[in-house]
Design the sequence.
């Protein structure tokens, strides 16, 4: 069985990890960084992912997508209120979110797929073998649409997603490897864009989730936004400048606010300096930890309600929890730590790196699936009640929230009109009484029912939530035992056909990407040769004849012309010709350098050899 | 949908031969010949899943231990590398074990499920206002209507908050009564002293009392939720573990 990797697909950063000989390892990139910024840039030269995309964000704000996780499994209506915080353009529609970049529209699963593909390639380079299977983590409070969107992203990236696992539970597995005593554990997970609280009981290697709650739209991003809004007001007051419509300045402010927030976890005060040449001033502002805490206190308070609800659902009081674990980068904020400590009345664990612990947990779950770890088993729950629409727009619950998964419920349907051959069902998730207050997941159409008098057909529909927390629906007519055919129309998701199309497109784009990468490499090589030739001509022009100089200059001009075109073969051919034309010059230079070296008595060696 | 109806999936049916190799399995969950997992269709009800008598007083530690044992046998994680057939069986068996565990672990759901077993599938228990509270409930409804029409003043807010606390207290009292009746039920099931006709009478009486309490409890929960909504609070906060 090929190796299964564990992936933490985060709002801000993503990571990939695997298990090796019973130990989890987080895989670094070529420069040794384990965090891949979850940023995708669409540029004229191709698609950039990670640090490269993040570096050009301020210059290319409308075509650089970040925090796409907040848009996963969402409709335009869900996110339109926060769109003012995003520089990229989300297209108004009544279905799944679509982002316009240059001449094409992309969906959040496609953008996430680019991040996943970068992680897949990183893992392949590190392991030296193809990686095709993965466990991917999601916030525990993700609904069915958001989970499905994550699974779709994996498929588009060429990964078979063997399991969607909840982030706080994954973290508990990571801790469970060595550090957890048996008892009740609360995992408080505040990431870049999402918040989860999970209450577990750990006993005899079983990690039983008792209850979970959260907010899939609350995280460090919101801290940054609070700071940015405060800075905007301050800039308006002190400089009279309104920067709300300046996309580049907003990105500078956002990155500045994020960096200042991080520094304030270790320092009492810090200074924010943001050059704004386009407005003719540089903005400087000192911000203290106390000021930051005033700004984010309401947001931190918003996490405590879900904690109390989860405790109530688990049937526990806060002080009955034996251990508290902190997960997610935002739990580095001292105010967050303080509030969690106050709520549970004990010092939380944070020994494991809060950025890496979820990816490590995903790798542990991957090893459980691969049969490597046999003494740990995770029993997770579904975060939201599942139901169907009944008469009067009321939701009838089939499976209550916090049920251990997998779980299933059966419901009988029949027809209301003579000869009816099709029955519709509307499936929802949420805790409210009325359909309109809950999340619409999908409409299912049962068809192929034999024409009978109204009320005669008895169609048994099984709603099964699998171990990924994803709904599967099956139906059969009880009289005939025949399986009924079901067509699924996801409310805020992609149909199978759309995912298939995206998988195909991603191959085409992958080829385009390879082509553009090869072009960039050819240009880089040309640039190196051009620079070397110019330097050589400067040093050795007296050592060669005029004719030869003219020949070299001719080849140099030809390469410069080719380099600005986009014909990779032409660039490589011109590079080769220039290399040939300068062979003699290089020899001459080498000879003269040797002579010099003999007289200079190896001074260079004494100075130490430069790297190039 | 009631717990009892969910339990319909559990029926005793002959399962003599392994679906894979057709050899005798004799009620085992893994075929003695080919070791393939077998559909868990021999359990007659949720109590039977855990080998427990049909009683309302349960040793929760023991229940959990047996639940963990089944999970270690049936969970889909353990069938990742198995055939699609085995994966489907593991999924169904796990779903059944999970539902059975959650139903029996919750004292209220346990009673609802038992009533379903004893009286056949019933479509929920309709909420019913407690007779002694009828007048008070009318006043609450009036106040709720008023709250819908205009913003709450401090006085009304306090009144509704107090009312909610009183109803929550009453609900707890009802749940206590349910536990008392549950103990009587268990005594009846265990005992063998009374004549069988008297036993049947008592059995029916106890079931009716349980249904009565559950109906009142459902009603109280609805009003408590309405009060929370009117007070502008998430009704989740004040609901106990389950919605129904």
Sequence:
């Amino acid at each position: 069985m090929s190796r299964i990797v564990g992936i933490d697909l985060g709002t801000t950063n993503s990571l990939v990890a695997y298990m090796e000989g019973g130990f989890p390892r987080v895989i670094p990139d070529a420069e040794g960084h384990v965090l891949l910024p979850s940023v995708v840039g669409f540029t004229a030269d191709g698609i950039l992912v990670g640090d490269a995309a993040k570096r050009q964000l301020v210059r290319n704000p409308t075509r650089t997508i970040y925090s796409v996780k907040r848009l996963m499994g969402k409709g335009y209506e869900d996110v339109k209120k926060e769109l003012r915080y995003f520089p990229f353009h989300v297209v108004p529609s009544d279905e799944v979110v679509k982002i316009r970049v240059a001449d094409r529209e992309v969906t959040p699963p496609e953008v996430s797929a680019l991040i996943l593909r970068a992680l897949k390639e990183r893992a392949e380079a590190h392991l030296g073998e193809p990686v095709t299977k993965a466990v991917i983590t999601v916030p525990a409070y993700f609904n069915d649409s958001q989970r499905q969107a994550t699974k779709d992203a994996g498929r588009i990236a060429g990964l078979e997603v063997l399991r969607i696992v909840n982030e706080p539970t994954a973290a508990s597995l990571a801790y469970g490897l060595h550090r957890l005593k048996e008892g009740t554990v609360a995992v408080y997970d505040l990431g870049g864009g999402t918040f989860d609280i999970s209450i577990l009981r750990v006993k005899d290697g079983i990690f039983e989730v008792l209850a979970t709650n959260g907010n899939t739209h609350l995280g460090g991003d919101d801290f940054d936004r609070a700071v940015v809004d405060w800075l905007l007001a301050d800039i308006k007051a002190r400089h009279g400048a309104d920067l709300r419509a300046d996309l580049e300045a907003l990105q500078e402010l956002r990155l500045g606010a994020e960096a200042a927030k991080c520094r304030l976890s270790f320092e009492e005060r810090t200074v924010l300096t943001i050059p704004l040449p386009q407005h003719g001033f540089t903005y400087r502002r000192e911000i203290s930890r106390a000021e930051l805490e005033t700004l984010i206190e309401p947001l931190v308070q918003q996490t405590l309600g879900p904690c109390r609800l989860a405790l109530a659902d688990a049937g526990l009081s806060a002080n009955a929890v034996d251990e508290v674990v902190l997960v997610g980068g935002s739990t580095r904020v001292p105010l967050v730590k303080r509030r969690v400590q106050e709520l549970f009345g004990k010092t939380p664990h944070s020994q494991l790196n809060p950025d890496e612990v979820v990816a490590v947990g995903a790798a542990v779950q991957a090893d459980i699936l691969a049969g490597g770890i046999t003494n740990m088993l995770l029993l997770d729950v579904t975060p939201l009640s599942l139901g169907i629409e009944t008469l009067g727009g009321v939701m009838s619950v089939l499976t209550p929230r916090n049920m251990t998964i997998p779980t299933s419920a059966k419901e009988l349907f029949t027809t209301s009109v003579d000869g009816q051959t099709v029955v519709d069902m509307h499936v929802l998730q949420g805790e409210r009484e009325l359909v309109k207050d809950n999340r619409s997941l999908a409409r299912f159409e049962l068809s192929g029912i034999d024409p009978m008098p109204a009320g005669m057909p008895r169609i048994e529909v099984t709603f099964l939530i699998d171990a990924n927390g994803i709904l599967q629906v099956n139906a059969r007519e009880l009289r005939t035992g025949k399986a009924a055919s079901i067509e699924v129309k996801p409310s805020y998701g992609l149909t199978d056909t759309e995912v298939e199309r995206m998988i195909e497109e991603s191959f085409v784009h992958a080829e385009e990407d390879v082509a553009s990468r090869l072009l960039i490499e050819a240009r880089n090589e040309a640039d190196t040769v051009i620079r070397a030739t110019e330097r050589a001509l400067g040093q050795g022009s007296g050592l060669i004849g005029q004719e030869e100089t003219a020949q070299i200059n001719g080849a140099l001009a030809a390469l410069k012309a080719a380099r600005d075109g986009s014909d990779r073969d032409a660039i490589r051919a011109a590079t080769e010709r220039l290399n040939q034309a300068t062979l003699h010059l290089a020899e001459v230079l080498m000879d003269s350098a040797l002579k010099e070296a003999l007289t200079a008595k190896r001074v260079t060696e004494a100075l130490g050899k430069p790297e190039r | 949908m009631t717990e009892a109806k969910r339990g319909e999936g559990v029926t005793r049916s002959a399962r003599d031969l392994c679906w894979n190799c057709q050899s005798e399995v004799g009620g085992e969950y893994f075929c003695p010949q080919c070791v393939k997992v077998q559909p868990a269709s021999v359990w007659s009800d949720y109590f039977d899943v855990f080998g427990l008598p049909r009683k309302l007083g349960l040793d929760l530690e023991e229940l959990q231990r047996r639940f963990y044992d089944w999970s270690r046998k049936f969970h889909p994680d353990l069938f990742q590398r198995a055939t699609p057939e085995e994966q489907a069986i593991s999924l169904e068996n796990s779903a059944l074990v999970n539902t059975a565990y959650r139903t029996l672990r919750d004292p209220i759901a346990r009673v609802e499920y038992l009533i379903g077993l004893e009286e056949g599938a019933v479509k929920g228990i309709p909420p019913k206002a407690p007779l002694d509270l009828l007048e008070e409930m009318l006043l609450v409804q009036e106040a709720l209507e008023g709250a819908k029409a205009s913003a709450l003043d401090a006085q009304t807010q306090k009144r509704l908050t107090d009312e909610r606390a009183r109803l929550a207290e009453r609900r707890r009292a009802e749940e206590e009564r349910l536990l008392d009746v549950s103990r009587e039920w268990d005594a009846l099931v265990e005992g063998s002293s009374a004549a069988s006709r008297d036993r049947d009478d008592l059995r029916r009486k106890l079931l009716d009392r349980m249904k009565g309490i559950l109906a009142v409890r459902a009603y109280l929960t609805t009003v408590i939720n309405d009060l929370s909504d009117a007070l502008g609070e998430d009704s989740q906060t004040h609901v106990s573990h389950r919605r129904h």
Q: What stands out?
A: Chain B has a mean pLDDT of 80. Chain B touches chain A at residues 1, 5-6, 8-9, 64, 68, 71-72, 75-78, 80-81, 91-92, 94-96, 98-99, 101-102, 234, 236-237, 240-244 (CB under 8 Å). Residues 154-190 of chain B form the longest helix (37 residues). The helical segments of chain B are 3-6, 46-49, 60-74, 84-105, 107-119, 134-149, 154-190, 196-230.
